[in-house]
């Protein structure tokens, strides 16, 4: 008998200037927050966050995140939380900061508040973390019993971040429906231990609809630091719709291939999560034997927002076929999600599809 499972965060707040509400909202959950952020993000948000907590009469502990969502970093910061009797963890920043925050809160058995400063990934709303080694190699997922208690995303902060982060989030979000459809077709499991619900599929469909409908205009406005209704819609698609859609709809090949790319060395590691997922999505579409017309639609969208669709743009133009097979080997690891597309596709076939995306994109100028 099928088991359908859906879960979501406790509360989501989005809009210009909402960072000022962080102290008040935190006070509804706890009194001794541990705030983590990297040095650059903290330099941008410190004044607003400090003022927000001051207005709420809450003292907080700040600790700098060192940049990698690794078990060593999680353990280090968990000890700091214990020493300061933290009763809530607040992550401020991008995907790895937020994933680390969720892991720390799980270790401490506290609520977690997520404050994305970019719309670059769908990590904020999920009940899992992507874990890497200290060297940045994907090692697995860490799952939690619940989603974040609160997400606060300030649109004004988001549009003042580098535009590449905004477009990377769009690329990550564009994988949502592509992967959810594969999970449905294979009767696979989503990320919360069941089959996708009707709600999760509807959310994934709305996510893709928003991106194709408003993506280019939102990209142009955000490039100038302007918040428009289109920008707000895409922020929600990147953050909430994509998060709910991937977790409840499930992942398949696109994200598994992203993880496979971590087996390579070189400049590919300078690319964002979303940039690598974009290419992984195109590889999945090739492996699914997607129509030429549909494939061109995705390629054209990615090109219009500056995402990589060729091996040169992925810094892989000189990569050997044997190394691309290694990508396929890691992607098809039994602990990853590739089987939600198919458990019959070989690493060699994945390597060939990676090459095929390049040829199709090169011929689609």
TrEMBL record:
Domain Alcohol dehydrogenase iron-type/glycerol dehydrogenase GldA: 9-154
UniProt keywords, alphabetically: Metal-binding, NAD, Oxidoreductase, Zinc
Top-level taxon of origin: Bacteria
The EC number(s) this enzyme carries: 1.1.1.6
GO CC list: cytosol
Positions annotated to bind NAD(+): 38, 95-99, 117-120, 126, 128, 132
Catalyzed reactions: glycerol + NAD(+) = dihydroxyacetone + NADH + H(+)
InterPro entries named among the record's database cross-references: ADH_Fe/GldA, Glycerol_DH
Binding site for glycerol: 122, 172, 255, 273
Family annotation (Gene3D superfamilies): 3.40.50.1970, Dehydroquinate synthase-like - alpha domain
Cofactor: Zn(2+)
Name the UniProt record assigns to this protein: Glycerol dehydrogenase
